[in-house]
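Section 5: illustrative case.
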């Protein structure tokens, strides 16, 4: 593995409408940094409503999204020297960041409700939603207990709710 290939295997490439300018592989991809492979592509073809640049025909129905993601995966396996598959991730901190998916209020807002049952129910819903998508990992909230000031006070609020 070359230094370039190893470096690319440690990098997240943000998907269509963020860093990627193409929805599906093009011949130009052989000249881009990811020509040596890439570790991860985040939110590719998700068509999130709050980012107009991500609008794509490939986000829905989910079977169409799966076809497109498989096309991208095939390119990385067949067109890069090492053929290492890509991990696809999506934002899940407030629900799934994808076309027609449920997105809940920010964690600071939910935490301010002091409602443990609400947190639990949202967690159950978030755990079931991504099933039809071809995504290996969803980035979601973690508990990081803080005893002092933390951005927006989110984790202090969460700590008081859960403990």
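Designed sequence:
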């Amino acid at each position: 593995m070359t230094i370039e290939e190893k470096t690319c295997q440690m990098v997240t490439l943000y998907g269509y409408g963020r860093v990627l300018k193409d929805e599906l592989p093009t011949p130009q991809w052989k000249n881009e940094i990811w020509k040596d492979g890439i570790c991860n592509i985040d939110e590719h073809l998700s068509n999130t409503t709050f980012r107009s640049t991500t609008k794509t025909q490939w986000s829905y129905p989910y079977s169409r999204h799966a076809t497109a993601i498989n096309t991208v995966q095939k390119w990385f396996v067949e067109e890069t020297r090492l053929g290492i598959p890509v991990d696809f991730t999506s934002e899940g901190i407030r629900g799934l960041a994808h076309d027609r998916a449920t997105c809940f209020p920010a964690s600071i807002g939910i935490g301010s409700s002091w409602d443990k049952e609400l947190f639990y129910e949202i967690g159950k819903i978030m755990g079931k939603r991504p099933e039809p998508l071809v995504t290996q990992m969803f980035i979601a909230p973690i508990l990081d207990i803080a005893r002092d000031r933390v951005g927006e006070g989110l984790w202090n609020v969460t700590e008081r709710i859960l403990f």
